[in-house]
Amino acid sequence: MKKISELTKEDILEMSYNELIGLVRETNRTPGGLNTIKDVARKLCLNNNSKILDIGTSTGHTSLEFGRLLNCEVVGIDINEESIKTATERCSRFNLEKVSFKLDDATNMTFNDNTFDVVFAGNVTSLVSNRENALKEYWRVLKPNGHLVAVPMYYLETPSEDLLQKVRDAIQVNIQAQYKDSWKEFFLRENDEVFEEIDYKFIKCSDEEIDKFCDDILSRDHLKELPEDAMEALQVQYRNFMHLFNENNSHMGFTIFIIRQKESGEFNDPELFHSELV
Ligand SMILES: C[S@@+](CC[C@H](N)C(=O)[O-])C[C@H]1O[C@@H](n2cnc3c(N)ncnc32)[C@H](O)[C@@H]1O
């Protein structure tokens, strides 16, 4: 891994969006950010005895916020070494002894079976090359009465091929357009049931908001070490990515799926008499 002062214009132009996030130390949040974390904590009545695994933690936002809210054990994993370093550095500022970060792959995790009460997979499973393996791993490390929280993003309408290709190029993953139903079908195996399902759609930012955000991020002290031509490339590339994701998100929504295993055997009959709030 090169030092910041050694990066060239070509290095910057070859980086995926995720690598750029690591470089600029952007706080990558789960869809819905802190509100999603609060929704999950409330719905599952999480407390300081809960044990949470945060998959694809990036620079640690979800893990740190669960730790701050609940003072419980949280482990954040990611395959990006730079992001794990930043997450660990941020953690030391919060004095959160029960939060830790680890380089680990969602498709082949180093944790023992039945370890966590909650496995939280934000907008990550779509980026994993072998999703089936990742899903098996999520359930393997969950305790028998644990909950899988998946927060996939999806298109609310069919995107143009041009937009989709630009997103693929930016994240350097060959994604296909996904919709809510296909995610639900993927996450919900035969013996699982939805405990909660909460739908949101994104609000589009103005171009001025995007530019202001980029100005702030790109003026960070550590980036002053970048050679001039690399900085110029970063200014263009990062801004283009953020405008692209703003456009892309305006066609997208996300769902907080909270999933658990069904009761097995003869008592597993569906609820018949439903009710409504009056
Ligand atoms: C879009 S960010 C997700 C950020 C945020 N935690 C969320 O909930 O939306 C995706 C993250 O997943 C990581 N990632 C991709 N494949 C992974 C894998 N197989 N195992 C662990 N992390 C992975 C990436 O490095 C990146 O930091």
Record the SSE blueprint:
Blueprint: H1 9-14, H2 17-24, H3 33-43, E1 51-55, H4 61-70, E2 73-78, H5 81-94, E3 99-103, E4 116-121, H6 131-141, E5 142-150, E6 153-155, H7 161-171, H8 180-187, E7 192-201, H9 207-218, H10 228-249, E8 252-261
Parallel strand pairs: 1-2, 1-4, 2-3, 4-5
Antiparallel strand pairs: 5-8, 6-8, 7-8
Helix pairs in contact: 3-4, 7-10, 9-10
Bound molecules: S-adenosylmethionine (SAM).
Can you offer a commentary on this structure?
This protein is α/β, with parallel strands linked by helices. The chain is 41% helix and 19% strand. Strands 1, 2, 3, 4, 5, 6, 7 and 8 form an 8-stranded mixed beta sheet that branches. The relative contact order is 0.16. It contains 10 helices and 8 strands. The protein is globular and about 70 Å long. It has one domain: 3-Layer(aba) Sandwich (Rossmann fold). Residues 18, 28, 30, 55-58, 62, 77-80, 83, 105-107, 122-124, 127-128 line the site of S-adenosylmethionine (SAM). S-adenosylmethionine (SAM) binds next to strand 2.
List keywords for this structure.
278 residues, 41% helix, binds S-adenosylmethionine, 10 helices
Summarize the structure.
This protein is an alpha/beta fold and 278 residues long. 41% of the residues lie in helices and 19% in strands. Helix 3 crosses helix 4 and helix 9 runs antiparallel to helix 10.
